[in-house]
Design a protein that fits this description.
The protein is an alpha/beta fold. It has a single domain, classed as NAD(P)-binding Rossmann-like Domain (Rossmann fold). Helix content is about 45%, strand content about 15%. A seven-stranded parallel β-sheet has the order 3-2-1-4-5-6-7, sandwiched between helices.
Length: about 250
Amino acid sequence: MDLNNRVVIITGGKRIGRIVAQQLAERGADLVLSYRGSKSEAEATVADVQARRRRAIAVAADVSKAADCAALVAAADTAFGRVDALVNMASVYGSKPFDELTEADFDRDLAINLKSAFLCSQSAIPVMKRTGGGRIVNFADWLARSGRPTYLGFTSYYVAKAGVIALTEALALELASHQILVNAIAPGPILAPPDMDPAEAAAVAKATPVGRWGGELEIAKAVLAFIETDFITGETLRVDGGRHVA
């Protein structure tokens, strides 16, 4: 897919999402950015896109809810008349010991990390079909892609991200005949959380075969590759600096 004059929806478009949006705009895409509690950051990303002479809007949406996902896609369709790609980046990440994990915790992880990708895809697919095809890029995790939970305290997160891989494969099969290609990215150590201890961040870099954190641009490159491809579907790509072979 040539991105020039295409319309891309990004959910959860802050931090890494901002760089993804910038790179898509550089390729000529117009952007629709969803946000829940970070309006100022979404508006800053809109400004980034507009500075590259592309169109962009920010839409408030809780993408764990079907009505909000439908409204997000409708806003994109109303503003730009089409939806060519959907990048499901909305995610929450956190740990809790298994014996403290509540039903609400489990439901929240699955709703935001997994169900949101299903709901947004379900809303976007009819619009993509109307214009002859599209691309969906989901976000899993390198550990789920490798089948290795590895760390204690991430049960619901790991289950949700494993589900994203299964969803990606199922949608790829369902939608291939409509020229809608569905793939997933499984990030490893890309960007250290703002509150991470510097010593811990250094330890993560040391445990990564390439010896460093990847940086946001590596995710943007993978998103671009999956949107621009015309033949790859049903794949989950680890972007982890070799962590899965360490």
